[in-house]
TrEMBL record:
Annotated keywords: Hydrolase, Metal-binding, Zinc
Record-stated family: Belongs to the metallo-beta-lactamase superfamily.
Protein name: N-acyl homoserine lactonase family protein
PANTHER family: 102 KBASES UNSTABLE REGION: FROM 1 TO 119443, QUORUM-QUENCHING LACTONASE YTNP-RELATED-RELATED
Cofactor: Zn(2+)
Organism encoding this protein: Bariatricus massiliensis
Length: 273
């Protein structure tokens, strides 16, 4: 089994959205300025004897610009930076893989930087948390444009006959294949977040948290992110990830930690096995 790491461009946003209350005015600093930080947009490909499993799809390549899929004000708040080499189709092509070769796509959740390219994987079974799927469909039906569930992305895949498997709340973890297990975290950062545990022969066990844990500060200091749906659920998820990592002696890869992500081997230069 091989685990490929993709870097699909980057986003910028206010650091208070990554680590809540990180820039707050105080008596000794009454004019504290906010700070825009940059973080990577990752996706992961698992190559197994039974086929390919893709974890997240990144942003759609046409997300930015006047005619972009993201509303202009959303682009101003969370701008995407990348070029033609930064999308999931390009990364797969570098490995000689077509989107039609992907048998399973796991969506950690359905926000703009994780589910932007759903429409390309016609042959895949998509696995997502039921509450997350319902939240995305609701945002679409209500035409909520200023939302992390991008209306135009949903509009493109909803017209296709996609194959969905919805994981139920409270169902527990789900083994996709031997050595590849979804951690069914439920509500926290979003309505329903799925982390991924991958057991590799030489690398050992890796837990990919996606946005259940943005970065080291969220994990080690237990500082909440600013973008959060359920605070109690987030803390429950963090505790579960820590306990699972301890039991499995696992490495933990955070969702958007630039410093950590820069230490990982990226595809096509290498992979983990």
């Amino acid at each position: 089994m091989k685990l490929h790491v993709f870097e699909l461009g980057s986003l910028k946003l206010d650091k208070n959205l990554v680590v809540s209350m990180s820039h707050v005015a105080r008596v000794k600093n009454p004019h504290c300025e906010n700070e825009m930080v940059e973080f990577p947009v990752p996706a992961f490909l698992i190559e197994t004897e039974k086929g390919y499993i893709l974890y997240d799809t990144g942003c759609h390549p046409d997300c930015m610009g006047e005619q972009g899929r993201w509303p202009v004000e959303f682009q101003n708040q969370v701008p995407f930076e990348g070029d033609e080499t930064s999308n999931i189709l390009y990364k797969l092509k570098e490995l000689g893989i077509s989107p039609d070769d992907i048998g399973t796509v796991i969506l950690s959740h359905m926000h703009n930087d994780h589910a932007g390219c759903v429409e390309y994987f016609h042959n895949a079974e998509f696995i997502v948390h039921r509450d997350e799927f319902n939240a995305c469909i609701q945002a679409y039906a209500l035409h909520r444009y200023m939302d992390s569930y991008i209306w135009k992305d949903t509009d493109h895949w909803i017209k296709n006959k996609m194959n969905w498997r919805l994981l139920e709340p409270g169902d527990g973890d789900y083994e996709v294949q031997p050595g590849v297990t979804i951690l069914n975290l439920g509500p926290g950062h979003a309505r329903g977040v799925l982390a991924l545990k991958v057991d590799l022969e030489n690398t050992g066990t890796v837990i990919i948290t996606s946005d259940a844990v943005y970065c080291t500060e969220n994990y080690e200091n237990e500082q909440e992110p600013g973008v959060i749906y359920d605070t109690v659920g987030w803390r429950r998820s963090l505790k579960y990830i820590k306990n699972t990592a301890r039991t499995a002696h696992a490495k933990v890869w955070f969702g958007h930690d630039r410093k950590q992500f820069d230490t990982l081997v990226k595809s096509p230069e290498g992979y983990y096995d």
